[in-house]
Amino acid sequence: MIKQVRICGFGGQGIVLAGVILGHAGILDGKYAAQSSSYGAEARGSACKSEVVISDGWIDYPHVLKADILIAMSQPAYNKYCCDVVPEHGVIFHDEELVTPNPQIALSHFPVPATQRALQIFDNRLVANTVLLAAVVSVTGIVTPDSLKLALDKTLDGRHLEANKKAVDVGFQLGSIVKKH
Amino acid sequence: MRSLVAHIEINQAWCKGCQICVEICSRGVLGYATDVSDKGFRPIIVEKIEDCTGCIMCELMCPDLAITVEKVEK
Amino acid sequence: MSKHLYKYLRTEVFPTPFCSGCGHGILMGAILRAIDELGYDMDGMLFVSGIGCGAWIPSPHFAADTLHVTHGRPVAFATGAKLFKPSLKVVVISGDGDIASIGGNHLIHAARRDIDLTIICANNGIYGMTGGQVAASTPLGMRTSTTPDGNRERPFDLCKLVEAAGGTYVSRYSVHQVKPLIRSIQRGLEHTGLSFIEVLSPCPTQFGRRNVSGTAFEMLQTLKEDCVSRQKAETMGSEELKYKIVTGEFVTS
Amino acid sequence: MGYRKIRGVTPPGQYFLQGDEACAEGAVAAGCRFFAGYPITPASEVMEHIVRRFKDCDGVFVQMEDEIGSIAAMIGASWAGAKPMTSTSGPGLSLMMENIGYAAMTETPLVIVDIQRAGPSTGQATRPGSGDMLQVKYGSHGDYEIIALSPWSVQEIYDMTIRAFNLAERFRVPVFVLSDEGVGHLRENVTVEQEVTVFERDKAPGQPPFHTDEPGGVPPMPCFGDGEKLLVTGSTHDPFGYRKTQVSEVHERLVSRLVGKIRNRADEIVDTDSYFLDDGPDVLLVAYGITARAALSAAKVLRDEGQKVGLLRLRTIWPFPERVVVESAQKCKEVVVPELNQGQICREIERLLDRDVISLPQTNGETMKPTKIIEFVRERAVTQP
Fold first, then answer.
1. CA-to-CA distance for D16 and A26, rounded, in angstroms?
2. ipTM of the assembly?
């Protein structure tokens, strides 16, 4: 089994961090994981993508060729990468507020109100990435929920950790609702 | 009663004949030899040791560390 | 007693390669006398120098660890050695071109760090080894091989530069002030933090023959006339001081 | 002195690390306790990570005023007994070049990590490239040899950094971990073992630090502060470090030894890896760094299609794996070199083989995709039956 995940948006949304946490969760599941990212020289605001490949064994080519899962957190990023998804079984998760899907893309779309919930519950849009990631994990099972939480523990510390742990629970809940649709 | 007098040793192998020592000595203790060394200058010699006060300015100002001034027993 | 200093030297490499009457030899003696009077063990000392006449003062002459490095970089090399082995007494001895021109950035950052180094800058106001080109320390109006009509660029005041960058012991002496110079080198060596001692050292070959007539001693005399002590300078007007070099201790914190 | 096994600083286990971080971990494991550096994308994470790790093992870190100062400080520290490292990328490497020559001349062990980005000049700071392949070898003036290793994964940058320190100490030479943004910013599984094999310097008091009677041998390296009264100089010097800048035989002997100690020991240093070479493939891919992963991926796809394609991966770049390249290419019809530059290593291979070598260059600031190699080989197969 090899799964390719592409997370995209703009700098400052935690796109890279979401990839790091997902990849880390992968290795905690005993898998092999490769995570990479691409961004401009500016620390904030420019286009940003993060890629995670999770496999049962060594990964020859560590970047995403065609995504099994696309996670889009901005409209420009969605527009750029929505065609680069495996046609047969690929799925797209997107922030419900920030991205309007292209009706011509005949793939399963999962709108997740991540930014909206992040603002509503935490008054902090910075945890939207975690909400969205947890929803993806909940729906696809790409990593186990326990590993996702453990990966947060190993990647974050202090007040960020507490907020993100709660954000994971919100994401799991959203995921279970999305799944029922 | 013991008394000390100065003794000046010049390391001719190191001296480059810049003459700073000759000029700096207010008592004219040092001077030049009449012959010319194989390096092309007149070697520095001690001319009037009896006038030396042992101020060691010649030693301190020698760029070639070629002068040693010592006080010895008479 | 020059002979008493021979134990600090690799006597087999003598006489020195310096030109007849070069002030760097006087400085060499002053440094060794300072070390001798302090009773330092040369085995615990490291001398770092760059490229140029001044850089040859410690290497190969001193019987101690010496690191003779690329042009302009001795302060940076010294920084690494000192940080890794703080027990070493690390002394940089190099010329004005080396320390203050090509290596100026390392100098100001060493001062900013206030790292425990002693930097002795043998300033002869010219690039001696390469044939007498103008330096960042050449006084206004002086003729060099690249300023045949006289230097039009103002020279650096190295002591002010190091003081502004944060050096905690800063002084300037000429080699003709040999006794205060030795005392100042001792203070620099004993100082904890960055000590910078600028030493004015005549270059009879490259500087002298283009700008002053006469012997090495006459050059020393000219230098003596150009220098005024810090105390005296405080009583003088700026017009009077225009062509003077102020000597003494500037920072002793 | 010599090789010995020590207990690593990092607890053994599985980690999920970025290439830059794994490099820093490898350095600490190998005994690196001095780091001087200057910030530069995409290499800064090596520096940031080692600062944190030095807290646990009393390492000395200094952020210098520029890359010139960084490598100078490393050389000073190396002679004071440290195993020093710095990390940089193309623009910083260019600034370091003069003192890399100094380190080669004075036989100073150093490890320089070059996380290559797309150049020339400032180029694309956040994008991968392999444009420094020849610069690390030839960038400083005069004749000298260095060692350069090229990792393709995060595990390998960890392992190779340890090896880089051992080779630097063993041969008294600057060693480059010649990586790229693709590996430096990649995060992958890393297995850290309990035991690490390290090489410790032979100080040999009283012995000449710049000569050995052994042909092509490596002299012992004493240390500042041990009462050895060392004379270290970048000028031409005799066995004890005395400058002999006017003696032609001394210069000839010194430069020959600096070059010979690496060239004559190439077999001990060179390390390669091969895939599908047993049946004498028609097409030989020669690749290194992150690009070798695309090449392996491509080779597998092409093999499935029935094409006889093999891969030779260069884990050592300098000294160049000449013997292995010549042997591997012998039975192949075509040699193809995919790389993130305009054919730097391709040209080196062409120099060795008495025939045309096909360059597959890419300099767009992206890692090469397997599809590029696959399509290229398919096309050649059609046009050249």
1. 9
2. 0.93
